[in-house]
What does this fold into?
Amino acid sequence: MKNSASLFLHQTQSSVMSPQQMQYIQLLQMNHFELSQFIAQEVEQNPLLEFQDDDGAGGECGETQDGEYAHHPEDAGGDDGYDNRDEALSTDWYDNGGSASTSRLYDELDTNYTNVFPDDAAPQRLDAPELVSQWKSMPGSGDGADYDIDDFGAGQVSLRDHLAQQIPFALPDMADRLIAQNFVDQLDERGRLQADIVQASERLGTSLAQAERVLATLQSLDPPGVFARSLAECFAIQLRQKDRYDPAMQALVENLKLLARRDFAALKRLCGVDEEDLLDMLGEIRQLNAKPGSDFEATVSEAITPDVVVRPASDGGWLVELNPDAMPRPLVNKSYSSLVKKNDEARAFLSGYQEKVSWLMRSLDERAKTIKKVASEIVRQQDAFLLHGVDHLRPLNLKTVAEAIEMHESTVSRVTSNKYMLTPRGLFELKYFFTVSIRAVAGGDSHSAEAVRHNIRKLILQETPEAILSDDDIVDMLKKGGVDLARRTVAKYREEMNIASSVQRRREKRALAKVSGF
It folds into this structure.
């Protein structure tokens, strides 16, 4: 067969996603924090964008009462799109910089705007008291009496720093401090020591007796229970400091596995106490801290900003609104654009930024509309939950919502990821309303898995010490309520809710009932 070069014409069809479509998809799945960071970067890089003021003034786009963006993207793409409202303002009371100068107001209104009561002004507080000697012009540096020391709070102390402050007083010998520092470096976030004493002594070139003596000293430091090598040792250290580590308590701490199984009969025999004393000992165990180092973790609790707010409407329905605080509000900087629009070079430079502004505004607008559309459909589907609670939560999947609002399932999935809805019944992630459908008894409606879990928890809370419900009993009671569920599924749901088995619950509740006298 002869090889030769030739030209062929082929016609193919493919779907290519534009950069603008990719940007819209990325914006759609961002949560409030990620969207705020993205908008901040765009405002920093694009000279045509700025943030909206708190009063909502000074821009071309804002938010309507429905939470949607009201803007005119075409204004960012043409030469004549920007009006002269900012220029009109500057001809009256404002100077060229857009701010009202005091001297001009004096002349125009024949009024003095200076403070006629200077003694009533708020006192100037010292910004940094430790720098008074270097910065004489600092506010409040006159006598140092105009500042509040509470304004300069120290940062959170870590567990390592907290222990470093105590070790020099507990261990005056430098060799002991080196061993102690090695042990501090091997603490985990719980304050538990993850080191083998024998290996540590060999590695440090010291005797085992010296390493154990240093460890015993470290275990007496604050917080109680630190440097323990196991949970039992952690409890033992705290009980010793409380002078409650008697032989009975020692036997209880050494048999925590029996305590986890609620084997009270074996514990009474090993501890040599009656049932009432055993329950008192269990109460003391519950008051101990199993993770003494967790109080020093530098974790910051982040407040959740709801993306959607649901309120009862006057007609008996529900009013679904987007939360303005969760929607960043970038604006077109028309003052800057009006200054450079007459310059051809500047206009050519800004043409690319104008197109980015237009697409960003449209993407934010579509994002807001899509979130509201999905949230409104979820509220319509879960109306019974909002009225009556978790028992009436309906089974729902992404396909049902997608078909109702005529969108793809992937779009609904992106909208519901890391988005939150504030309802009269609390704050919920949008994913919470999508639950698996549990098969109902013949002739009945299907049930939500979350509602079934809630019913299982409620049945267990209502049981008495004489009538503890087994998993089979729960299956029979759910079937009477119209829920067809297998026993292994009940056991799985019970374990997910961290509820003990029927044998363990029977032991615990009977013991508590005897002590209470019921």
Notes: The two ends are 100 Å apart (CA to CA). Residues 466 and 510 are 8 Å apart (CA to CA). DSSP finds 23 helices and ten strands in the chain.
